[in-house]
Amino acid sequence: MGGGGDFTVTLTKKVVAAMLPMQEHWLPLSNLNLLLPPLDVSVFFCYKNPHDQRVNGGDDFTFGSMIGVLNKAISPEHWRPIMHCQGKLWAHADVRLEDLDLYNPDVSIEGKLVPKKNGVLSVQVTISHSLCISNVVLVGACTFDHRIADAYSANMFLVSWAEMAQSKPLSVVPSFRRSLLNIRRLGSYDPSLDDMYVPISALPPPRAQQPGGADPLISRIYYVMAEQLSLLQMLATSKSSSYKRTKIESFSAFLWKMVAKSAVGENDNKKICKMGIVMDRRMRLSSGDEDKAAVMATYFANVLSIPFGEKMIDEPKVKPFELGGRCRS
């Protein structure tokens, strides 16, 4: 990828689509939602201009017609019970997708092709004209407040939006029944959980205030070929064992090993290195009850945990599969 962080995105239109009067619906955050910090998460999708297709069997696709379909599908008449739709952004970008540096999304994507969050959800649709008109590309992006939705819920929203844009019936009707997660008994926690959290005052200062501008939180996008995952899985599986490592185990162990190897500072080997994977817990909370499992499969909110292992930083370099210690969630 090239250095695609230096380009211009021009806001062409902001559509305010809230219909008044509106019936307000107040939805409380669950305890699982409240575990999440005020963190923004984004997703974007890229589409080639489908010249040989038509919108709902009618007019040829144009930027305006595509915007119209997306705008209608996300209008408040569909989403009124769950969303107060204040506005959506349409924009043009003077960059080709092949020139974007997707390895550094914080620089090349955030605030450009992916909108800054305003409220609980922001949507931006961007058109990018390359040198050849046949490669005109549409980029659809959303930024969510993580406190209202995990990746599973965000996917429900995106799939529903796509189905409505294609005039299809909804395959999943989301559930907002917070009572599904009412506690059965007073909770307790292991003292080891104290090691998972630190006061906000103990976090590293913002990037602008740090020597050299180092950023403690870095986003990366990796593109891994299927054959590479299969090779990792083969290398990770011992010939003397009947147990076959899964692809997620194999890749996670490889990533943990690479992160540990990247530590080159003095006394780094004496530091703790942690590896965690975000997991959906809807099936776990159904406790084998098929009826509850069916309801939990449509539950829109946060139902996740992060099981993780920890080791001294030199151990994952040679034994990335042997998490040892405590694997917490």
Describe, in plain words, how this protein is organized in 3D.
By secondary structure, the protein is α+β, with helices and mostly antiparallel strands. The protein has two domains: 9-174, Chloramphenicol Acetyltransferase (2-Layer Sandwich); 225-312, no CATH class. Helices cover 23% and strands 16% of the residues. It has helices spanning 31-34, 63-73, 76-79, 105-108, 151-165, 226-236, 247-261, 282-285, 290-296, and strands at residues 9-15, 40-48, 88-93, 121-128, 137-145, 272-276, 279-280, 304-305, 308-312. A five-stranded mixed β-sheet has the order 1-3-4-5-2, covered by helices on one side. Strands 6-9 form a two-stranded antiparallel sheet. A two-stranded antiparallel ribbon has the order 7-8. Helix 2 (63-73) crosses helix 5 (151-165) and helix 6 packs across helix 7. The longest helix has 15 residues, at 151-165. The protein is globular and about 60 Å long. It starts with 8 loop residues before the first strand and ends in a 17-residue tail after the last strand. Pfam families: Transferase. GO terms for molecular function: acyltransferase activity, transferring groups other than amino-acyl groups. InterPro entries: CAT-like_dom_sf, Plant_Fungal_Acyltransferase. Belongs to the plant acyltransferase family.
Q: Compute the number of helices.
A: 9
Major sheet size, sense and barrel closure: 5 strands, mixed
Task: Report Rg.
Answer: 23 Å
What is the mean predicted local confidence, pLDDT? 75
Low-confidence stretches: 52-59, 79-83, 324-329
Q: Walk across the major sheet and give the strand order.
A: 1-3-4-5-2
The sequence of SSEs as H and E is EHEHHEHEEHHHEEHHEE
Q: Which CATH-level-2 architecture of the largest domain? A: 2-Layer Sandwich
CATH topology of the largest domain: Chloramphenicol Acetyltransferase
Number of domains: 2
**Based on CA inertia axes, which overall geometry fits?**
globular
- Give the strand tally: 9
In CATH, what is the class of the largest domain? Alpha Beta
Structural class, judged by helices and strands?
alpha+beta
CATH superfamily of the largest domain: Chloramphenicol acetyltransferase-like domain
User: What distance lies between the first and last C-alpha atoms, to the nearest angstrom?
Assistant: 36 Å
